[in-house]
Amino acid sequence: MDSIRVFAPATVANVACGFDIFGFAVDNPGDQVTLTISDEPGVRITDIIGDEGRLPREAARNTAGIAIQTYLKQINRTDLGLDVVLHKQMPLGSGLGSSAASAVAGVYAVNELLGRPLPVIKLLPFAMEGERIACGSAHADNVGPSLLGGFVVVRSYSPLDVIKIETSAKLYCTLVHPDIEVNTKDARFILKNEVSLKNTITQMGNVAGLIAGLMTPDYDLISRSLVDVIIEPVRSILIPEFNEAKQAALDNGALGCSISGSGPSMFALSRNVQTAEQVGAAMQQAFLSVGITSEAYVSQINRQGPKVI
Amino acid sequence: MDSIRVFAPATVANVACGFDIFGFAVDNPGDQVTLTISDEPGVRITDIIGDEGRLPREAARNTAGIAIQTYLKQINRTDLGLDVVLHKQMPLGSGLGSSAASAVAGVYAVNELLGRPLPVIKLLPFAMEGERIACGSAHADNVGPSLLGGFVVVRSYSPLDVIKIETSAKLYCTLVHPDIEVNTKDARFILKNEVSLKNTITQMGNVAGLIAGLMTPDYDLISRSLVDVIIEPVRSILIPEFNEAKQAALDNGALGCSISGSGPSMFALSRNVQTAEQVGAAMQQAFLSVGITSEAYVSQINRQGPKVI
After folding, report:
1. What CA–CA distance (Å, rounded) separates B214 from A298?
2. What confidence tens digit (pLDDT) does each residue in A35-91 have?
3. Residue in A63, A70, A129, A131 annotated catalytic
């Protein structure tokens, strides 16, 4: 095998109550990366399709490129030549984990291409290097679920402790990406450095409830726990019509609805595909009522992580 | 049946990372309440054994008395006459949920005596009234686990949402009560009203990890998650030799160790009874090294809640 193409899923980080610790993967959208072995040593981004020229072509500054480079260094294979093609199949800067999906697809692809020298869980630190390039910090709440599939808790960074939550809950995710821009760094900058003890307690209760709800599974408990009293009240200000779109989701039967990552995309979880689609249409309508167009995606929670295609 | 005697278990609130939201019950110690139907209407505390005269004898000011009175009012049976005897079998003001155990035993007993007009879960608000008398606020992190058994999350107070965590984890609890006094209200007063966002995130990660660890069960994850970066660093100052006793517990194989409720008692969790006993001896020795005597209790996590004896 001298060429491989891998899909890695988009992800929803934070998931209402779990700021910086919680994320899940979806079946759609996602990114694809094609790797081809070349005689010339080094990692080259030979093409990026679908980014409208916005992403860096230099491997060391590209999330997939740096993830692959860091991986090759770790396994002492910097002699390897790799041509990389990125197929961006989701909006950039959307809060859907676009940079994470590219990094995960890249590092998963090279590991498969080389006959899987490392187990999948060990690929996480390399994908996190991609996040460091893209966002300024090596966070794991997008790369974790993109790599492992399902719902993931980042319990700790030092040492890194990423836990996949076992759940039999059948959940459909609606993602709506309004055509506006929110910079991830700005979205972090507006957060307060202090939280009231009262809100911390409320949030901890919801974190506990969400994990218990997923693992039981208990859909009512999941719904009651999808509440964010710390981050959403601040960041939602950056998203026009946030409250209306959220209310539209809840009115149409969603279990919960909040910001995906640092936005501007929003996610909603529902118990079946019909509800999830209805929720998406209602959310899009809310944005459209003030002239904001959007893209909507509906899919199941992704359980598998990346896959060779 | 015109008389009944009920045992209700002691409880560990907070459980390291879960301040105000988390608690569990133990098989030992606990309190007992005896109720006897009387011809004279009204609730009377006729005797309290083991409190050294410290608890109020007036029913409306006694945790068990007020819980029973509130219950009888709710079910329109204020005509009933009840003589109440409290058998206090654990230290008062110890952080082991003494007031909660009495309130739970009382309200469970009267409900059984009357042929169980209310399901057990519905007794919670009456037991919480006992806590309001004892501590100034109707908290549920002791009465919840004492009434339901096992590990309990108080997700929300408004509306009240108390969740029993289903776990097959086999855990032994060591409780050590040093013979010093910490006032619950003081212990709350020294807490800061603000928490850094960083510590909030760390704590949320541990809350998620603890619930996932219990439900899986994953003992290593339970151990890694039994960490409190918000409350313990402040409240432990009120407990002489806290750090030494905690270190002794961990050195002797405990999965984790922290303050029980608002202290001064400490709890440790272990995987078997031998470890739990060794942990208790080591913790007692740490206190004794500075001349502080203590009582130690070792038992399994209580799964049943109150029982008729």
Report:
1. 32
2. 999 999 999 999 999 988 889 999 999 999 999 999 999 999 999 999 999 999 998
3. A131
Three-class SS of chain A: CCEEEEEEEEEEECCCCCCCCEEEEEEEEEEEEEEEEECCCEEEEEEEECCCCCCCCCHHHCHHHHHHHHHHHHCCCCCCEEEEEEECCCCCCCCCCHHHHHHHHHHHHHHHHCCCCCCHHHHHHHHHHHHHHHHCCCCCCCHHHHHHCCEEEEEEECCEEEEEECCCCCCEEEEEEECCCCCHHHHHHCCCCEEEHHHHHHHHHHHHHHHHHHHCCCHHHHHHHCCCCCCHHHHHHHCCCHHHHHHHHHHCCCCEEEECCCCCCEEEEECCHHHHHHHHHHHHHHHHCCCCCEEEEEEEECCCCCEEC
Of A148, A165, A182, the residue at which a domain comes to its end is A165
Task: Answer yes or no: A244 catalytic.
Answer: no
Q: Is residue B309 part of a domain?
A: no
Of A184, A232, A241, A275, which residue is the catalytic one? A184
A131 has catalytic annotation: yes
pLDDT 10s digits, B79-131: 999 999 999 999 888 999 999 999 999 999 999 999 999 999 999 999 999 88
pLDDT of residue B133: 83
Does A140 share its domain with A213?
A: no
Reading the block at residue B273, the tokens are 């009874």
Instruction: Give the pLDDT confidence of B244-286 residue by residue, as tens digits.
Output: 999 999 999 999 999 999 999 999 999 999 999 999 999 999 9
Span B19-78, pLDDT tens digits: 999 999 999 999 999 999 999 999 999 999 998 888 999 999 999 999 999 999 999 999
Structure tokens that stand for A210 in this block:
């969400």
CATH code, domain with A240: 3.30.70.890
Using a CB-CB distance cutoff of 8 angstroms, which residues of chain A are in contact with residue B211? 207-208, 211-212, 215
Q: Which of the four pLDDT bands, split at 50, 70 and 90, describes residue A32?
A: very high
The domain of B256 spans 172-300
| Position A307 in a domain | no
Indicate yes or no: CB of B203 within 8 angstroms of CB of A201.
Answer: no
Q: Considering only alpha carbons, which residue of chain B is nearest residue A163?
A: B209
What is the nearest CA distance from B12 to chain A, expressed in angstroms? 17
Q: Does ipTM surpass 0.85 in this model?
A: yes
In the block, residue with structure tokens 């197929």: A87
Distance, in Å, from the CA atom of A11 to the CA atom of A23, rounded to the nearest integer, reads 7
| B283 and B258 inside one domain | yes
Q: What local confidence, expressed as pLDDT, does residue A184 receive?
A: 63
Structurally, how many domains does chain B consist of?
Answer: 2
